[in-house]
Design brief:
By secondary structure, this protein is α+β, with helices and mostly antiparallel strands. The protein folds into two domains: about 140 residues, Nucleic acid-binding proteins (OB fold (Dihydrolipoamide Acetyltransferase, E2P)), CATH 2.40.50; about 120 residues, 60s Ribosomal Protein L30, Chain: A. Helix content is about 30%, strand content about 30%. A five-stranded mixed β-barrel has the order 3-4-5-9-8. A four-stranded mixed beta sheet has the order 10-13-11-12. The relative contact order is 0.14.
Amino acid sequence: MNSVSNTSKTCAVLALMAMPLSGAVMAQEQSPQRSDITVVGETPAAEAAPAPAEMTPGPEVKGIITGRSGDRIQVTAADGTQSVIAFADTTRVKAASGLFGSKTKLTTAALLNGLPVTVKTMQGGGALMASQITFRNNDFKTASMIRNGTAQGFAEQTAATEALRGRMGDIDKYNIKSTTNVYFDTGKSELTPAAKAELCNAASNADGTNNALMLVVGYTDSTGDDDFNQTLSEKRAGRVINYLQQACHWKPYRMLTPTGMAKADPLASNDTPEGKAQNRRVAVNVLVSKGLDGL
């Protein structure tokens, strides 16, 4: 084997933020200070809000904001039920803070996707109108961090991808800085503990190499027919890529398109069990374009 130079609440918020609204219309939060997350789904039904005199006290709704469009929010409760609630300039928006739970008055711009809220409502004509929306100050900070962090992450990845494409577009020759081979049992694509350790070590070493990319190539021995071996080699390469990205935190935009080579390019003879064992492998190649090497 060769290896050379490489809060539970927040999880709940993220999970509910990922729940889709029904349909496929794009809706976006409206905020005067910053652009907000785009919500994929059907815009909540636009029933005409009844006049205040026609409204009666409605249910108190507790849950997480999982959609927003204009003057309506969608709140998803812990049991999965969803309520579309309208709000207006008269709706009181407050964040609980301080030792005794004092309230800080805010505007409706604070109603972020992923924010756990308690909504006091009025009802009439089949619609709900929020009279008061409250949430904890710490929950608001968490929702803000998630939204801003997600937006920043996407922006950074997009910029990095475009930069690499621009620099690499006309370059098709690379220097191989290192190669790590991980090995598999006959007909299998599962990674051994030793292989997992090798992959993360390779990723760690490669992360310190400027402009490094990874090319993952899967192979088999000569056992089995060509179609089976082609599929198996691709499956092995895919398993390695998933582990590198998910467990070893190698950025997807630093990964070249993987390849399955089946039984081509053997490292050793397929005439012996020892040779076949060397050929059942995935090669993780760390590359740097010759035009960028040393930058």
